[in-house]
Amino acid sequence: MSLEAYFLYFCVNFIEKIMRKVLALAFIGSLFVVNCSKKPENNLQDSNTMLEEPEATTVVDSTAKKVTPDASTTPAPATPEAAKTDSAAAKK
After folding, report:
1. Fewer CB within 10 A of the terminal residue: the chain, N end or C end?
2. How many angstroms separate the CA atoms of 55 and 31, rounded?
3. 21 is in which domain, residue-wise?
């Protein structure tokens, strides 16, 4: 082979190697750009405010029988002993 053939072979191989590297860098760069452009919505995680409690729903059993308490079973309201006497009068 002549010198021109070696030179052409070298140039073609050199260009192929450079193009492979350029394509690999472009592919990796595009993956990086796609991953960085996806911003998940973290509205709840970023906020520093407390959320309101949801209203508690009460479940009512429509098949249950309504029971009225008897007067004999209802306890009388108890008044504490401290409320009956005056603490200042007790110290005298």
Report:
1. C
2. 46
3. 1-37
Give the 3-state secondary structure of 25-44: HHHHHHHHHHHHHCCCCCHH
> Rounded to whole angstroms, how far apart are CA atoms 37 and 42?
15
Indicate the burial class of 89 (C-beta count within 10 angstroms; 0-12, 13-18, 19 or more): exposed
**Is the residue at 10 inside a domain?**
yes
17 in a domain, yes or no? yes
**How many domains is the chain built from?**
1
Model pTM?
0.36
